[in-house]
Design brief:
The chain is of the alpha/beta class. Among the domains are: 84 residues, Gyrase A, domain 2 (2-Layer Sandwich); 94 residues, no CATH class; 179 residues, Isoleucyl-tRNA Synthetase, Domain 1. The longest helix is centred in the C-terminal third of the chain and has 25 residues. Bound molecules: arginine (ARG). The site of arginine has 8 residues, from strand 10.
Length: 584
């Protein structure tokens, strides 16, 4: 139960005891922390129901609440609010419970099985920054869901079956017609050339550019795609080699970012489910021919803008993006029977997913109770407000971007000279990851944002670096305490100052942020909360003696408080996929 849920329960009982039953009651953090810590606005609804002035209801309920010893103050104020403030003793006790809670106050939703579709890289094409957001947000949503007790698995839905492979095959065939894989007689076990990531990096853009001007080449690429999908053996062998090289490259990039996937299924894995899909669509009378293609109507009367029919088979017989997405739903239902499937994809693909979900519902591919959610994200822009590009105007490659940020972090570490030679590279990677991820996740996922490396690497403001810096401060105090042989009781909390109280309330309020982050599928709430905790910690840190505090009780309480603060900050960072560093 979160802090406000707990207070809501207490307040609901008080409303009933004061004679106001069946009233919807809520207690929230106060809008006016200068007046009180919590408030309830529920007297207005009760007043309507009971035909009384709201402040009279507030007085009645506050009188009941006032008898509860956890409240320092419970008062009705005009026009009809209830203001609540807890005693320091109650806050310290709740903090002790929080520290003892194995979930550290994170609400648990344990009967969810969630499949999260994120990353979505395309084999043979370089990863660009557009794929960055999907990877970062999807990974974080997976970790948040897990922290909340859910079972969550990531599936990257590799683009491994489309035209881009046909383009690469056609280009390689023009360059190396002598390769055995291009012979129609090629059989499994034949000789397959060894490719490298550098080759693919060069081949795809060349082929893609060529296809735009050279019609004959474009046709070849289409034919190659079609033949691949119809399992021409030489193409399959070459495709497997492309997958091997590209997969290793993708994994190394994701590794650097602390992004991982339980499943590396691709569009090609959906292939086996396409006949079944077609069968269902036909039997239910949903699919029909239109201009040689097979389509399903998905428009609804209430649509404000037209939603075109979804094409499930093109006139040349090949299946397309929507087909694979639909077939993948069958596969996911069979493999995982998920209660939710989340798609973390660029906002610009919303129409595609709307069509796919509607078609899936009509066809009954998943039970009605299964949530299918499009969790769209906005564009990462450069400082000019346009989609992020390299200096020469090209598409920024993800590996280059990670490199740039890591290098900048390394330069700072070297300048400060605090970190040992041996640790510098790993520190720079972690700080770089924190800068990139926090800089992204602090923005609500649906919004566009500006990638500003200097800002992201700043030690002030809402940055990953600031959060890591806070942790390193706590580390330093606890390290010194250990060096001096100071021992303390980690579960003994007590309040002596305003800033201690403020920090404890922030820690206790975290459950609320987890709840919102999960409900809105938005990691930004976790970022904002951990930032607020760090700000409160700073206030506390600047005005408190800790190690050199003479009063033993105060010293213990403060060491316990910073220990818990570090645990809670770390739990937030864990869910963002950000690792900390010992010192900065
Ligand atoms: N590969 C796609 C792209 O680069 C993204 C895949 C998203 N996932 C999905 N199930 N459609 O645009």
């Amino acid at each position: 139960m979160t802090m406000t849920e707990r207070l809501t329960d207490i307040a609901a009982k008080a409303f009933a005891e004061a004679g106001y039953t069946d009233v919807p009651v809520a207690v929230t953090f106060s809008d006016r922390p200068d007046l009180c810590q919590f408030q309830s606005n529920s007297c207005f609804a009760a007043a309507k129901q009971y035909k009384k002035a709201p402040f009279m209801v507030a007085d009645d309920v506050a009188a009941v609440l006032g008898r509860n010893e956890i409240f320092e103050k419970a008062e009705g104020v005009k026009p009809g609010f209830i203001n609540l403030t807890l005693t320091d003793k109650a806050i310290a006790e709740m903090t002790g419970e929080l520290s003892a809670d194995e979930h550290l106050g994170v609400p648990q939703y344990d009967n969810e099985m969630i499949v999260i579709d994120y990353g979505g890289p395309n084999v043979a094409k370089p990863l660009h920054v557009g794929h960055l957001r999907s990877a970062i947000i999807g990974q974080s949503l997976k970790l948040i869901a897990r922290a909340c007790g859910c079972t969550a698995v990531g599936d990257t839905h590799l683009g491994d079956w489309g035209l881009q492979i046909g383009l690469v095959i056609a280009e390689l065939e023009e360059r190396h017609p002598e390769w055995a894989v291009f012979s129609p007689d090629f059989r499994e076990g034949g000789e397959v050339p060894e490719l490298t990531a550098e080759m693919l990096t060069e081949v795809y853009p060349t082929a893609s550019a060529k296809s735009k001007t050279d019609e004959a080449f474009r046709d070849k690429a289409h034919t190659a795609t079609f033949d691949l999908q119809n399992r021409r053996e030489g193409y399959i062998a070459l495709w497997k080699e492309i997958m091997r090289v590209s997969g290793a490259d993708l994994k190394s990039n994701y590794d650097k970012l602390n992004v991982d996937f339980e499943y590396w299924y691709g569009e090609s894995d959906a292939d086996a489910y396409i006949p079944e899909l077609m069968d269902i669509l036909e039997k239910k009378g949903l699919s029909y021919e239109s201009d040689g293609a097979l389509v399903v109507d998905v428009a609804e009367e209430t649509d404000k803008a037209p939603v075109p029919p979804v094409i499930v088979r093109k006139s040349d017989g090949s299946s397309i993006y929507a087909t694979t997405d639909l077939a993948t739903i069958i596969q996911r239902e069979r493999d995982f029977a998920p209660s939710k499937i989340w798609y973390v994809i660029d906002n610009r693909q919303e129409m595609h997913l709307t069509q796919v979900f509607r078609c899936a519902r009509k066809a009954g591919l998943v039970p009605e109770s299964t949530e299918l959610s499009f969790l769209g994200f906005g564009t990462m822009n450069g400082k000019d407000g346009k989609p992020y590009k390299t200096r020469d105007g090209g598409v920024m490659r993800l590996s280059d971007m990670i490199g740039t940020v890591t290098d900048a972090a390394l330069a700072r570490i070297e300048e400060q000279g605090k970190v040992s030679e041996a640790d510098r590279e790993e520190y720079a990677r972690r700080i770089g990851v924190a800068a990139i991820k926090f800089g992204d996740l602090i923005n609500h996922r649906a919004k566009d944002y500006i990638f500003d490396m200097d800002k992201f690497l700043s030690a002030e403001g809402k940055t990953g670096v600031y959060i890591l810096y806070t942790v390193s401060r706590i580390n330093s105090i606890l390290r010194k305490a250990a060096e001096q042989g100071i021992t303390f009781d980690e579960d003994k909390f007590e309040i002596f100052t305003d800033s201690e109280r403020e920090l404890m309330l922030k820690l206790l309020g975290s459950g609320e942020s987890w709840k919102t982050a999960f409900a809105e599928r938005a990691p930004s709430f976790i970022c904002e909360n951990v930032y607020q905790i760090c700000v409160s910690f700073s206030h506390f840190y600047h005005e408190s003696r800790i190690i050199d505090e003479e009063d033993a009780a105060k010293k213990n309480a403060r060491l316990a408080l910073i220990t818990l603060t570090r645990r809670i900050i770390t739990a937030h960072l864990d869910a963002l996929g950000i690792e900390t560093v010992e010192m900065m």
